[in-house]
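ingest -> validate -> predict -> emit
validate: passed (alphabet ok, no gaps, 360 aa)
predict: started
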Amino acid sequence: MKVVTVVGARPQFVKAAVLSRELREQGVEEALVHTGQHYDAGLSDVFFQELDLPTPKHHLGVGSGPHGKQTGQALERLERILEAERPDWVVVFGDANSTLAGALCAAKLHLPLAHVEAGLRSFDRSMPEEINRIVADHCADLLFCPTQTAVDHLAKEGLAERARLTGDIMYDSLLQRLPLAEERSAIIEQLGLTPGGYTLVTVHRAANTDDPEALASIVDALALLDGPVLFPMHPRARLALASGDLELAPHVRVIEPVGYLEMLMLERNARAILTDSGGVQKEAYLLGVPCTTLREETEWPETLVNGWNVLAGAGAERILEAARRPRPAGEPPPAFGDGHAARHMVELLRNDSSHSRCLA
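emit:
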């Protein structure tokens, strides 16, 4: 069996690394395609190095740009590759433009398609990610769902027969990589941080970076937070702050984006996390760190249980109220599978014959 996996953005590299390892262990041939959506070394190369992700067989070199241009170029270049590779399965991950391009291309070439992290819904169609994940789900033959909530969403859309509850592949990754992060990463010491003594912030979604009022409000909230604030800054946020002539308070420390292992250590040792990232919300939950989400909705409602995650939007007062809440009691209840999602996925790829398409 041959599988073509399509990746292009930072979170996809983490998911693909876990699946790729399982594919190799089960003797499945894999051709990895990197669209180049994230091409900055801090958002791409470092992940391949530290996650032992195979060197891409194909690199499309798409780069950044408007959604239409980025998706269109990926679709055009990917079509030639899939026609040449003729895999048994095409696998796409998450909700990036690379996901959309891979899903559309596989569907139009009548190649069996599997979507990892299927069934997530924020119910906010102003988010490009929401459109991408909906289209990918409706194109796919196998839908790998991280939670029962995701399965239920797909059932309401008439996709129950394609849905499989596998658990969350990011949970696999955390279980596999956290011990390695603890062994290898010295970022807490290097930055002079006190465990439990700082707030970690990430901002990258267009709804916050491209809205001057929202971004200014987030900056105001950060200025009023107690104690040190660490801000690994995404290039999009850096450009937006410069364009808006916005200055961060002195206690907000900006660093360059960090690799996956270092980010796990920063998350685990934070007192609290503020983010607009779906993946960081979930990692905070799994690590037992209170999270405030700088959005009005989440595709991971499981993280809201017992107040471990609170939706605050971009309003400064709501952010501060959420960030200053008491730590929830106990530990977050299990919600994301058994830690063997990748194994379940590969077994389904090898054995599932329910897809309706056949190779041309």
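The chain has two domains: 2-168+338-351, 179-323.
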